[in-house]
Amino acid sequence: MKKQQEQRKQFNRVMELPTGKFPQLIETKRWELQRDMLIEEVEEYDEACRDKDLVKIADALGDIIYVALGAVAEHGIQGCIEEILDEIQRSNMSKVQPNGTVLKAKNGKVMKPSNYFKPDIARIIKNHLNLHYSHTKLEV
After folding, report:
1. What are the tens digits of pLDDT across the range 36-49?
2. Is-contact 140 126, C-beta < 8 A?
3. Cα(79)–Cα(95) distance, rounded to whole angstroms?
């Protein structure tokens, strides 16, 4: 994913779009734009699936990831996104019950059993902020 993150940072540089150097909030107009672009790409995915067009599905999914990487860059979390994804994976795997079974809703969604735990994203963000600002105390 590092290659794709570097490509997205290059795009941001060339297009004169912001890229954060550390984890940060961004202006309302910027996150609203990121949200709107993600919604647009998800709608294209929906249309491609309805059309049963695998090429358009792949294009839409690629665009969703590319736009998400833009938001990652703008929020300055590119240095910790892989760690965040690892933590999300660790949390998601806690959805396996101790007996090895998985609970699913009728629609196929995996349910959270009693042993499920939320990902500790705050810890990761705090650690990365501390790398940049040893005096910063983040309240999450």
Report:
1. 999 999 999 999 99
2. yes
3. 27
